[in-house]
Amino acid sequence: MSRSLTLEPTGTTCTAKDEPGSGLFQDSKEVSVEKKESKASDGKIENKLPEKAIAPLTGIEFYVCFGSLALSLFLAALDILIVGTIMETVAAKFNGYSLTGWLVSGYNLPNALLSLLWGRLATLWGFKASMLSSIVIFEIGSLVAALATSMNMLIAGRVVAGFGGSGIQTLCFVITSTLVTDRTRGTAISILSCAFGVASIVGPFLGGAFATHVTWRWCFYINLPIGGLAFIVFLLSYNPDRENTFENFKNFLNKVRRAPYGQVLKPSFYCKLYRVAIFKFDFIEFALCSAGFTLVLLGLTFGGNRYSWSSGSIIAYFVVGILLILGSLIYDFVVFDKIKPKKEHIPYMPLLSWKVISKPGVLIPNIATFCTCFAYNCQIVYIVQYFQLVWGDSPWKASIHLIAPVIATVIALLFCGAVLKKTGQVKAVLVFGGVVGAVGSGILTLLSPTSNSSAKIGLLILPGVSFGCIQNGAMLSSQIQIPKDHPLFRFDFISVTTFNAFTKMLGTAFGGILSNTVFTTSAHNQLSRIQPPLPHSGSVDELISHWYTNYGGRDSVEVRVFMKAIKDVFWMGLGLAALAAIACVFSSNKTMGFKKPVADKETDGEQHDVESI
Questions:
Q1: Residue 117 and residue 113: Cα distance in Å, rounded?
Q2: Alpha-carbon distance 46 to 137, whole Å?
Q3: What are residue 6's phi and psi, to 5 degrees?
Q4: Helix (H) or strand (E) run with residue 611 in it
Q5: Does the structure show a pLDDT above 50 at 305?
Q6: Given CB 3.0 to 4.6 Å as the disulfide criterion, which of 138, 314, 393, 443 pairs with 398?
Q7: Predicted confidence (pLDDT) at residue 323 exceeds the cutoff of 90
Q8: Are 561 and 389 in contact (CB under 8 A)?
Q9: Residue 3 CB partners (closer than 8 Å, separation 6+)
Q10: pLDDT reported for residue 344
Q11: Quick check: 363 and 352 in contact, CB under 8 A?
Q12: CA atoms lying within 13 Å on the CB side of residue 133
């Protein structure tokens, strides 16, 4: 007999409906539910089941749905580093190595920035519609990237894919957290994290295989059939409302056809549109934050390459970017609460809530997440560059060396999931991961053109273990800081989960750009000191394009230049890994409390079971 897991009888979605009223932004059912809830609570927010409670998935239905989420997450995570082994190929094709950092960050930056917005979108549209929309957007971006005829078009495709990938990565963890109990949440998150971790490593592996044996465009074509399968499976399996999917689609089309489009001509429509954009989606913060981070990353991209670091253009990028980021924080932390409509039955909240992220138990593990993803992205990308530029390996052969961190990451994720399920000791997992990451990052700096096979394989294991531990533990450490008896528990729970996704992808985005900046600047400085100048050394782009087709051996001057630049990237990764370790040490001591769920009065004591993962 299989052991069953009891789900707490609470609704599995967080709703944040707009004020009652008809129109393009509100469904009639939502209005009726809202009016009843508002009347019952006397205008106060209550943490209770909605009128139409969502029943958990059971048996095979649960496994199929969970499998579709894992497949979707694998697909979105695959795109993070699948370009890691095709950078030289694409740079030679479009003559732009200095922009290759945007092949990674062009995907990861919108991925990070929109993660906060997708969480908010899910509270308005629902999990299912939001998840399916994100898959469609991801597929469109993948198609644009696959058909790219220039570096700019390729980066544009990556940006669009990042919009969709953000929703996939954010909502997969949020939806899964609502389908299982506290005791099994660690195991479920570990399995999803396995999909994420494996994809992050398999990405460069597949990229190398396609670049060597087919074409780099297949790195993006492959997303189309896999994404289509994930879309269909999730569409058919995720149905907690127990409604007919095709009937719902017909009803949706009828609503679209019968929608009061005449309201578009009325001032009241634009008043409501303004409230939705400014207060529900916090568009001002999103715009300021997006523009700020983009300008900072552009400054890091062009600095020391296209312009000198002291040029007015680069200084302007950094100054304006930082001011916009600070402005977005001030707006959310101070201004938003002062200008939002004072309606107690509507929980208007900023994307970055100071009440949530100011808690040390939430902020510190997310600092560890940012630093770990930053360092790990640097290490994985430039491990591949090490084998290609220093050892002259093909993309395929270079990617084979990533098998070691794949195995290490998976084992660490599964081990941590088991430990968390048994003991609930989140901090122990974080500290272990932080210490291992710092040690592993330090050892990576020992790589050289003469390293033996054992060193080239073994040195990659510890960073993989660290990534697995911290990725899993940091999210859970943040989630358990939200008290379940809080009136806005569901809303804050989603906010914390999306904030973790934000820091994870922001760290990955900065890792992609800054590692490229450090490598390019270091190589450029070395080339400027070599006399007489090396052939084809007018720029780092030119040198790498020439070296890619004219490898001159590990004893050459070019290899010494590349090795020194790669080591500089690893030293930066070591600094970030050390910061992550310090953050883990100061993380919360709170454990995952496993309590027997109490039946909700509104469900008449009925409990919902699903088989153990």
A1: 8
A2: 35
A3: -95, 125
A4: strand 608-611
A5: yes
A6: 393
A7: yes
A8: no
A9: 611, 612
A10: 56
A11: no
A12: 13
Position 604 scores a pLDDT of 36
43-57, 259-273, 461-475, 588-602: range with highest mean pLDDT: 461-475
Q: Distance between CA atoms of 499 and 505, rounded to whole angstroms?
A: 10
- Range with the lowest mean pLDDT among 47-51, 413-417, 528-532, 569-573? 47-51
pLDDT of 410 over the 90 cut: no
Angstrom distance (rounded) from CA 556 to CA 533:
14
- Please give the model's pTM, rounded to 2 decimal places: 0.74
Q: Which residue has the higher pLDDT, 389 or 611?
A: 389
Output 547 or 369, whichever has higher pLDDT: 369
Residues 120-174 pLDDT 10s = 788 777 888 889 999 999 999 999 999 998 888 999 999 999 999 989 988 888 8
pLDDT at position 40: 38
> Does the pLDDT value for residue 44 go beyond 60?
no
| 366, two tokens | 């997310």
Pair 84, 250: CB distance under 8 Å: no
pLDDT in tens, 177-228: 778 777 777 778 778 877 876 786 677 778 878 888 888 899 899 999 999 9
Residue 51's CB is within 10 A of a number of other CB atoms, namely 14
Tell me the two tokens of residue 353.
């809530």
Distance, CA of 429 to chain centre? 21
Cis-peptide into 532, omega within 30 deg:
yes
Instruction: Describe the chain by its helix, strand, coil percentages, rounded to 5.
Output: 75, 0, 25
Cβ distance 345 to 41 under 8 Å?
yes
- For 605, residues 6+ apart whose C-beta sits below 8 A from its C-beta are 599
| Residues in Cβ contact with 406 at an 8 Å cutoff, skipping those fewer than 6 apart | 197, 198, 201, 202, 205, 464
Q: What is the DSSP letter of 149?
A: S
Name the 3-class secondary structure at 510: helix
Output the average pLDDT for the chain.
78
In the block, which residue shows the tokens 């523009």? 291
The CB-side HSE value for 536 (13 A sphere, CA atoms) comes to: 13
Q: Which of 613, 409, 609 is nearest to 6 (CA)?
A: 609
Structure tokens at 369: 């997440």
First-to-last CA distance in the chain?
14
Length, in residues, of the chain: 613
**Locus of tokens 């100048």:** 533
Answer whether 235's CB lies under 8 Å from 132's CB: yes
- Dihedral (Cα; 558, 563, 569, 572), 10-degree rounding: -130
Structure tokens given for 231: 């879309």
Nearest CA among 284, 60, 28, 70 for reference residue 175: 70
Cα separation, 408 vs 441, in Å, equals 15
Q: Contact, 289 vs 300, CB < 8 A?
A: no
- Give me the residues paired with residue 307 across strands: 303
Q: Residue 610: beta bridge partners?
A: 5
Tens-place pLDDT, residues 541-583? 778 877 877 787 888 888 889 999 999 999 999 999 999 999 9
Coil, helix or strand at residue 163: helix
Q: How many CB atoms lie within 10 A of CB 247?
A: 9
Tokens 């999917």 sit at which residue? 245
Q: What is the DSSP string of 455-481?
A: HHHHTTHHHHHHHHHHHHHHHHHHHTT
For residue 585, give every residue at least 6 positions away whose Cβ sits within 8 Å of its Cβ, in sequence order, or none. Answer: 431, 434
Is residue 375 over pLDDT 50? yes
